Amino acid sequence: MFKFLKGVVAGSGTGLKDLPYNIGDPYPSAWGSWNHFRGTSKDDGSPVSIFALSGNNAQDGHLAAGRNGVKRLRTVRHPNILSFLHSTEVETHDGSTSKVTIYIVTEPVMPLADKIKELGLKATQRDEYFALGLHQITKAVSFLNNDCKLVHGNVCLASVVVTPTLDWKLHAFDVLSEFDGSNESASGPMLPFEWLVGTQYKPMEMVKSDWVAIRKSPPWAIDSWGLGCLIYELFSGSKLGKTEELRNTAGIPKSLLPDYQRLLSSLPSRRLNTSKLLENGEYFQNKLVDTIHFMDILNLKDSVEKDTFFRKLPNVAEQLPREIVLKKLLPLLASSLEFGSAAAPALTALLKMGSWLSTEDFSVKVLPTIVKLFASNDRAIRVSLLQHVDQFGESMSGQIVDEQVYPHVATGFADTSAFLRELTLKSMLVLAPKLSQRTLSGSLLKYLSKLQVDEEPAIRTNTTILLGNIATYLNEGTRKRVLINAFTVRALRDTFPPARGAGIVALCATSSTYDDTEIATRILPNIVVLTIDQDSEVRSKAFQAVEQFLQILKQNYEKTNAGESGATGGASAIPETAGLIGWAMSSLTLKGKPLEQAPLPSSSSAPSLASAASNAASTATEAPSVKASHHTRSNSDFTDQPAPPSPTSTDGWGDIENGISEGHDDDKDGWGDLEPLDEPKPSPALSNIQAAQKRPVSQPSRPAATSSRPKISTVKAAAKTEDDDLWGSIAAPPPATTSRPLNLKKTVQSDDEDPWAAIAAPPPTTRAKPLSSGRGRGAKPAAPKLGAQRINRTSSGM
Questions:
Q1: What is the model's pTM?
Q2: Which of 94, 113, 493, 769 has the lowest tally of Cβ within 10 angstroms?
């Protein structure tokens, strides 16, 4: 069995041919005659430990004991016993001499003595770690003695190794043998290889070779003595030299001293059972042992116990040895989260521990678990991830975010919980820079379009702020189509004052993307209206924005006159933009409280939306008539501007109708009745109809002159490019006003001269009934009646 690899090498220096592991550097110490090497797998490069034992011939006693150790290690399995992976025996020849070597491959470990020096723990932290390790080794020894009826025979510091997660494992099974106390006829040694054990580690009955007394003793007698030797070596910090040194108890903790003395009793029958040592609650119950033990049996705990434990864990972890937390507790926590046994508060503890790691270690030990958690259906886990996304978002690559994280996060945009929608929105501030242009334009912007008409005013405000912050990551064509319409058509007309303020700030923050024409014809007309807003903060921001954009236009004008290269408006944006965007966000936090810069705890975030909604309700109720009259006068001044082209559905937005304009009548929105001030004379064919009523009414048949103008307008709109208006087809109406524009005259040229024609709602068809077929008699009495109604309604609005 042990000689299946008979590959003999020609010289002693060539090494093994077929061992599927690479042998690395040796450790300075190992148990007995074994040599302990670092190693790696040839298949995947995973680390392993390789133990080697050599002898001059196959009948060497050390080799026989080594074969016994291999057999026992292969068959005995326990969480606190070294895990066996592979073994082989190789015979090499060098001239007339031969050499036999046994190799054992195990999980990666290092000698306990070396690990203690590496950790360098002191005082309480050292004692807590020793208690954890002794607890693990005691369980292994108790398993051998009480469950398997085996005797290890040489429990000491050298027979203990430590895994990368700082678990203690028992090995060195060369001496291990069955306990045959029931065999009264046996007279020979119960442990055939007891000669390998140093005299200082042997109890008195083994020194005397009194095997009769040993067989009459309990199965744990020899190994209980060995545990006493291990405890002494741990707390004395030196290797046991002679048996008499065990009497020196100066370094033994007082809570452990009584059990230590019972383990080293001179009478084998009175020695403490190793299983009883585990019941020493005074010594083994400390923060580290209790925490690790709770994690080991996590599946047996109920939800209340888990929730309480994980909420306290971040504070407890700060008091534990940092190295042990990162190498032992962190992997346990990540595994429990990944497989669903941990509660949502465990994520907070995981991220806190992860913050103590280097960037490279965080990407290897923590990030894979977090990425898998985004696919979780547990709403509490999703909320916790979104609240803490700023702590790990920067560590994720763009490909991981785009392909594995965003598809799961995007489901929160349409969640029924407003709180989760808001957290999803805020997470995009961290994730959006890592998304591809295809995802940004094809998916994210569509979600933001819907959120800009969300029922929660805080979410509408935060959507505008987010769009202003991620504008630099959009390509130029997308910015041209989206930004102006999103900020002016929607944000500046929102009924929630902080949302209007956010729209102004977003326009200022993205001023580098607009040219002079856009600033003069599409941005300034919308901002100037807000200089008479009922909210003082909105008015203040509007005045600052007007000054900023006028300054940009002025600088570009001066450059043009000076013969310099004609730069667009964005090249000379005022450096106060950064302050404005920060001011908008901070003012929103102080006033409406829908946005917080730090991660939001679940207990304090829910009220933010409620307070924002209450502010929105109070704002909506304030509509003084003075403001309405001012809006009427302002709107009439803009009607001479050329109309922007109508949006099309091919830009990806036309099919996303949010219904923001539902419930608003066109005669109340202040935008549908904008008319040019100068009305050209109508054609003679239309004079009778215009005398009868002041608005256009669709007729089944009309002279050619009546349809010529709409056709021209339609052709013009179709000839425009689609870069104009990604948000126009779903544009929101402006804030509702109670008055009417002063100019009430209609003209067939309004589509060409009205700058808002592309986004204005169509005129309602319910104000007047169609003309009767008897045109001659029905038209004359209708004219004074309709004219009187228009005049009366206008005078009441004024």
A1: 0.65
A2: 769
